[in-house]
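Much of the work behind modern protein science is quiet bookkeeping, done one molecule at a time. The fold becomes a row of whole numbers, each drawn from a learned catalogue of backbone shapes. The protein below has been through that process, and both of its lines are reproduced in full.
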Amino acid sequence: MEGIDSKAQSDYAIPGLILMEQAGTQAWRALIERIASRNWKEQRFLFIAGGGNNGGDALVMAREALFAGLQNSTVLLVGSRISNTCATQRNICRSLGLNLVEAESDGNSLSENTLKLVGEADVIVDGLAGTGLRGMLTGLPAELVKAVNARKVQGAFICSVDVPSGCSDLVSSAAA
């Protein structure tokens, strides 16, 4: 995915912001199609947005949800390193009045408020980390992934942008 984005930008002069808009809009449409039977407008949505392209895609999805009439959603912002395109999406969401909350931890574990947001969500959009991730998730992001996985076991629907956070999009030749 990362290579496709780079090629689109370098070879065809398509700005990253346009790619992000398209990815987020199409991901939102696919999600709604997938959960249509869940009466989605009555569900509690949590959009987890890291600071990179996945986070930007999740922010576009949150905005599309607002435009589609979703009233019960929160965007959980994660990370202090924010790409320019993701920062633009954060500013757009902020100006539209979306409920943006910074993820917090008290050192070794997630704050009560962050755990509550994850624990109450019926649908979670995982835009924490994607194809640009290098190495293992640690700290707050790793704890957040654990909480999301626990919520999935309890019945929440999880939608990951690109790949689930912490997973690689690369397949080794031994597995292929």
User: Anything to note?
Assistant: The longest strand covers residues 45-49.
